[in-house]
Amino acid sequence: MLEEIFGTSKPVIGVIHLLPLPGSPNWDGQMEPMLLRAEQEASSLASGGAHGIIIENFFDSPFAKNHVDTATACAMTLAAKRVMSVCGLPIGINVLRNDGLTALAVAASVGAKFIRVNVFTGAMLTDQGLIEGQAHELLNYRQHLSSKNIKIFADVMVKHASPVTPLADIGQMASEAAYRGHADALIVSGVATGSAPAITSITSVREAVPDKPLLIGSGANRENAAALLANADGVIVASSLKRQGKIENPIDVERVRSFVNAMQRQPAQQS
User: Fold this and answer.
1) Cα–Cα distance, 128 to 97 (Å, whole number)
2) Where are the alpha helices (DSSP H) in 12-69?
3) 47 near 75, Cβ under 8 Å?
4) Residue 64 has what DSSP assignment?
5) pLDDT tens, position by position, 66-107
6) For residue 25, is the peptide bond before it cis, meaning its omega torsion is within 30 degrees of 0?
7) What is the pTM assigned to this prediction?
8) What Cα–Cα distance (Å) separates residue 140 from each residue in 9, 16, 28, 32, 154?
9) What does DSSP assign to residue 149?
10) What structural domains does the chain harbor?
11) How far is CA 220 from CA 122, 128, 137, 257, 262, in A?
12) What 3-state DSSP class applies to 121?
């Protein structure tokens, strides 16, 4: 599946963190600066050799729990179209905190290839409160939109969250997301943005779900790529691609190029 979407079995998917959008507390009323930065970051990712892009409303915090404002959805659609106008990379949509329905709607409208869903099955305690999975609603809505070609990349024990059951097993949670929720791919991240997942978490998910793509969702960099990718199929990366490695800065094309080169030196995953 990954090769079909990204043209490689080990994709580097760069993240465009959109500046504050209408409907969020920090929106400043200026649409064009947000769109221009999204264009520039898309160009940096494409020029640096990334294989895909995911667009998310990262700077809209504090996030709505489940449903974003209609204006936010419209702005994300505009941003996705602008990104697609400057590069031909496959695009994904992530609507924070957990609005998979809007992500699907935006993806279907612009022709995006995938969405990311932070809480797909089960329930997690987050800074927005208790968030419950929405696999049933998402799969029904995808069918309603005649968009089964849009793949669902589901987080397992997503960052900035804790499972409701303290002794929850990540392998079991992955199995339920894959085989009961019918996610198309799984994502394992660390405890927070920029934090790498534990190697044991990656191996547990791989052992529980050996037949679906597994992506690293946070904390990947040139130094730890080999260890993280020993049992994974690709990475979603943001922080380490930013200027000076600072999350608030724009994407640096040289950092993208350096990261992609490091990834290409890793052996292909056999699974």
Assistant:
1) 8
2) 31-48
3) no
4) P
5) 999 999 999 999 999 999 999 999 999 999 999 999 999 999
6) no
7) 0.95
8) 29, 28, 36, 35, 16
9) T
10) 2-264 (3.20.20.70)
11) 26, 26, 31, 14, 11
12) coil
